[in-house]
Write a structure and sequence with these properties.
Two copies of one chain form a homodimer.
Chain A lengths: L4 E6 L13 H18 L4 E6 L2 H14 L11 H27 L13 E4 L2 E4 L11 E7 L1 H10 L4 E5 L3 E6 L6 E2 L2 H9 L3 E4 L5 E5 L5 E3 L6 H11 L4 E5 L5 E3 L7 E3 L1 E3 H10 L7 H16 L4 E5 L4 H5 L5 E4 L1
Parallel strand pairs in A: 1-2, 1-12, 2-9, 3-9, 4-10, 12-16, 15-17
Antiparallel strand pairs in A: 4-8, 5-7, 6-7, 10-11, 13-14, 16-17
Helix pairs in contact in A: 1-3, 2-3, 6-8, 7-8
Chain lengths: ~325, ~325
Amino acid sequence: MLKPLVVIALGGNAMIRGKQKGTIEEQIENVTETAKQIMKVIPKWRIVITHGNGPQVGNLMLQMEAGSHSPFNRPILPMDVCGSMTQGQIGYLIQNILGNLLVTEGPPSRLDSSKKIKVATIITQVVVSKDDPAFQNPTKPVGPFYNEDQVDRIKKDHPDFTIIEDAGRGYRRVVPSPDPIEIYEKDQVNDLLEAGFILIASGGGGIPVVENLDGTVTGVEAVIDKDLAGERLAIDTKAEAFAILTDTDKVYLNYKTPQQKGVDRMTVTEVEKHLKEGAFGDKLKGSMGPKLRAAIRFLKDGGKKVVITTPELAAAALDGDAGTTIVP
Amino acid sequence: MLKPLVVIALGGNAMIRGKQKGTIEEQIENVTETAKQIMKVIPKWRIVITHGNGPQVGNLMLQMEAGSHSPFNRPILPMDVCGSMTQGQIGYLIQNILGNLLVTEGPPSRLDSSKKIKVATIITQVVVSKDDPAFQNPTKPVGPFYNEDQVDRIKKDHPDFTIIEDAGRGYRRVVPSPDPIEIYEKDQVNDLLEAGFILIASGGGGIPVVENLDGTVTGVEAVIDKDLAGERLAIDTKAEAFAILTDTDKVYLNYKTPQQKGVDRMTVTEVEKHLKEGAFGDKLKGSMGPKLRAAIRFLKDGGKKVVITTPELAAAALDGDAGTTIVP
């Protein structure tokens, strides 16, 4: 019998942590730690991995900005292309490092017991709607902070940019964060899953594309939330579980207050009630909100369980022995 | 019956031409032209696409260099990682543009006639030998030209770099160009081919990795010739034909001399004889030499035919009606 399928969404800290700049040494060390934890999940689950790309794409956009001036004068590429480049970058690092662990410690492939399980990275476009209200209201900050002087030049060089003031920290470009509708390469992902590979797909929330009237798709300058894209990936691959890995061992009520209390298990109804009452605490708003919304959506779309925990506790959480489990 | 398989190797000019800088508009226009030509090959052939990445990886390395100084201070990533980023970039562009042409004009998928053929990009590592003599003798120029002042700083910042003087044009880093041994993700490529997809793989000659004693692989700073890597890809996918697309309609004897003469058809023995006698002319040495060596290797490894021509003539050349055909 086939093992059940889990989509694992890795947060940015799986690759570049806290104050790190993202040198290759840092990224290899962090990905190695994360890959070791994923190895513990393999005995009981088939796996699709998705991941954030915030620090990587931020570095790349800065590098392109730096390289656009004299004496370099190289063209800045749009955000959809930058996204594709970080999918290649992070996909390669995970595929190489996890692939190496599979060579030395992995189980044999399901289809050919003389071979080990292998990893594949699929460059992935994610369809969003042209009519998504996010396109009228860009909110996702991307790229570098600018000071007063720089922002005037940026506005002149890029009249299409929306720039906002980030209190005390300078000015920053914001882009739309539309809702993901469909993993455009889902057939490719499912085919490789069927054949027994571990897949890396839809990195950085996927390359956002809008569908045209003739069915073709066109890249847009936007950023899709990686957990919401991971939810689409989980539905489009018929995954049983969706594991959202982050830097906290479980979801907390009244986070970072004296009344803080970890939650082992919740239903969708309980999550919705807590969200409505603001019971998770303001501190959680930035990072946990989208995760909980992705969790609710997965379970309403037919998924069986969501776990939210750290990479270290992922295998135990999928067994119900750690982290927060959310069920329909 | 299955259509025969062709590996198509696209030269750099399929994406960025001549004096172009590589803006997104230029790349989209060029890839669109190339994709239209690939559409003509589809009725008779299953297809794997590989491609160069010279201009793209050159831009990226310049951008990383530019972004490594104050006020940006972002880390420079090694060449294997840069290669993976350009695989994502170019893979996305081809996959999006060719995928769109397939949506509007493509034939139905072999396995599900209600669907169109789709495209997939696989991030690809290519195994080279640790003992390849190229590692003792780096020859492939990469990245920017440096002047006298810059080169001193570069040598200080990167004591591991080999820098050569390029007469009259300044100084430049050179890296090893080892021989490709195996497409590491060949199972992933073959699985998707089997299912009826058009594959993009091993871009930029693949991400060069050396195999360690325990069977794991480690990225190295090197560049694999994209036609030689394409040859490996053709063998590892059991392709019948290998099409090397470039900016000349066929191979010429005494190229750019009054005795210039186009060749319609040659055997391996004839190519070897001409190469030995220098009959292709010195002008051809830089670009055609590696293509002819890749062609000879493919046919000696069991391939049935190689065509060398432009993207515009690719379909006709595969029919034997244009370009240069080389046979065993």
